[in-house]
Amino acid sequence: MALEAFHFAGVPITYPLNRTTINHNTAPLGSYIEKAYYGDSNPFNEAIFDQGITHRPPQLESDRTNRILLYPGSFNPPHVGHWALLDHALASSQDINIIAAIILPLDDDRVIEKCEALGQSLAFSKEQRVQIWRGYGPHDKYWAYGGSEGEWPSFRHRLNEDCARDGFEVKFIVLAGPDQVSQDDVSWNPRDCEEILVSDVSRSADFTTSEGTLEQFEECDPWEPVFWNEEAATRHATSSAAFLGDPRYFEHLMETLRSDDMSKTESVSICYRKAVPTHSIRFIPAQGEIVHISSTLIRTIIEECEPARLEEELKDIALHPEILVEFVRAQVPRHGGCLRASISTPISYRTHAD
C-alpha cells in the first residue's frame, strides 16, 4: 500500500495513501439527501446529519460501494430497543462500508391498522414518530425520513441518480429484527433491497441455538463467518474527525479499530440465497443481554399510567421520553385517572397542523 508522509516537529509521520489517489473523490451524503428530499430549497434550513466540529458526517467515496441502512418500521412509538438495534448494526458493519442509516416510519393508516389488530388504541402520527427519532437535533449517522411510503421510491431514485451522476455508487441494505426474518418466513428483496441485515439485540431469533450457533435457512447456503477488513478499517481511520484534525492519530486509531472492530465482526455471519446469490442475510448477534422492549409495552404503560408518573415510567425504555410525554399530555383528553378509562375509539396522535 502506498504511503504518504509529512513532518511534524522534524519527525516523519506516514500513513496509507488512500484518500488522495487521482480516482478517489468524497462528498457529504447529507447534501445529496437534502437535495433529493427538499429540492432546491430547504424551508427549515435543517441539517441532515450533525455538522459539529467534533463530528464527521457520513461521506460518499467514489471508488467503492456506499451502503445505507434502510430501517423501516412502525416505531409506534420509537424505543431504546429500536435505537440499540440501529446502533449495533452501524457499529458492526465497517467491513461493508455502511456509512449511514435512513429510518422509514410506516404510514399512519398502517400503524392504526396494526394497533386495532392488537386491540389497542394509541397510534402516533408519522410526524410525531419522526420527531421522536430526530430528537433535539441531527445525528451523526442516521436520519428519519418524513415523507410517505408511496413517495419513498421516488426519493430513493433521485438520491441514487444524483449520487451516480457525480460518480458515487449507493446501495441500500434493509435492517430488520428477528420478527421480520425467521426460518419459516423470509421476505426476499424487501423494499427493493437485495441485502438484509438482522440482529437479535432487541428480541430473540428463532434461528439461533442455545449453544450460540445458527440454524441454516432452507433457501440459503450454510452460514459463513465475516472477517475483519484491514482496508475498510484504514479507510475508516483516515476519514475520521480525529485523523483529519491531526494525522498523527492514525496508528492509534488503527489499533483501536483492530481491537474494537475485530471483536464486533468475529461473531458476524452471512448466508446467501441459493436461487439468487445476490440476495443475502447478514446476522449480527447481540453482545450482552437482549433488550426486551416493545412499543406495545410502552403504549400499555401510557394507557394505564397516572399522568404525573408517566415520564418516570418511560425514561429508561422510550426514545426521547420527554418528547413522547409532551405529545401525550398535550393532545390526549384525560378525565382523571389513567388514559385507558377515557378511550372508546382508536386515537391517532397528531399535531395541530394535521
Could you explain the architecture of this structure?
Helix 2 (80-91) links the parallel strand 5 (65-73) and strand 6. With 354 residues, this protein is of the alpha/beta class. The protein has an eight-stranded mixed sheet. The chain folds into two domains: 21-284, no CATH class; 295-349, no CATH class. The chain contains eleven helices and 16 strands. The longest helix has 16 residues, at 250-265.
Percent in strands: 15-25%
- Alpha carbon gyration radius: 22 Å
Helix proportion of residues, in percent?
25-40%
Arithmetic mean of pLDDT:
82
Notable traits:
disordered C terminus; alpha/beta; 11 helices; 16 strands; Cytidyltransferase-like domain-containing protein; Rossmann-like_a/b/a_fold; 354 residues; disordered N terminus
Summarize, please.
This is Cytidyltransferase-like domain-containing protein. This protein is of the alpha/beta class.
SSE topology sketch:
Layout: E1 3-8, E2 11-16, E3 26-28, H1 29-38, E4 59-61, E5 65-73, H2 80-91, E6 98-105, H3 108-117, E7 122-124, H4 126-134, E8 142-144, H5 152-165, E9 169-176, E10 181-182, E11 185-186, E12 195-199, E13 224-225, H6 230-238, H7 241-245, H8 250-265, E14 269-272, E15 280-284, H9 295-304, H10 310-314, H11 321-331, E16 347-349
Helix pairs in contact: 1-5, 6-8
